[in-house]
Amino acid sequence: MKSNYSSTALIWICNILITASSIAAIFYVYMAVVGYDVFDLESKEMKDYSSVTTMSQSLFGNTYFFQSVYDAESDSRKEYYYLVPGNMAYKFNPDSAPKVNAQRLQKDLSSSDWFGFRTQRVYADPTEVPLIFVTPGIELADSSQLNHFFRLGYISYTGYAIYLILLFWFVRRFMTGLKTNNFFTVENSFNLRVSGHIVLAAPFLHLLWYMIFEPAGDELFSISGASLHGALNYSFKFELLIAGLIILVISQAFNYGVKLQKEQELTI
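^ that's the sequence the OP posted. Answer follows.
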């Protein structure tokens, strides 16, 4: 009985995850089609702000920045577009690192709501702090180029959501099969084996997505006084490979149990 309760709970967890992944996939497709809608903002909507900056992040950690700055001399706004690669970091020697003015948050004077989110931030007077790690921002030509990368980012998210839907679907089928009195069935063995193959494919799919959707994979900079610290090349997910292999080994044992059960039924 306890086994059935556990299986039912896991099945409902899979149902929730499948539903959440499906909603996410629809949202990501919508965002990929719509694009970076902040470009649709009219100047009058930003007239009260001297500078407006928005950002969005992709599956691989890239951040896309759009900035609109008011120029008082020409009474117009200038727009800037940046791609900040998430896989590229440079390290400065602390003794020779460039310094910027920064303000430390004063927690005792700041306030938070009961969820723990800051509702008011109070900072101390500016002081110089060294930049030990920096990530370069690549300035893009125009909004269409930034929109292109933005859409690619959400397409990559869509692929990730579809992957999770498939994985949770076959895990759910397997857990449903375990609720019956007969565990060792061909269908259960098949669902477990497919789940193992899906997990095993994860690092290779991630590599494929990286090669297709990584817009700054070949970019390199020479920054005076800094050395390249971040990994520009892809980091293979060996832990997922091992997990997939373990599931496949279990599925083979399960398949062996199916054969033993069939032989026992024939013997009887």
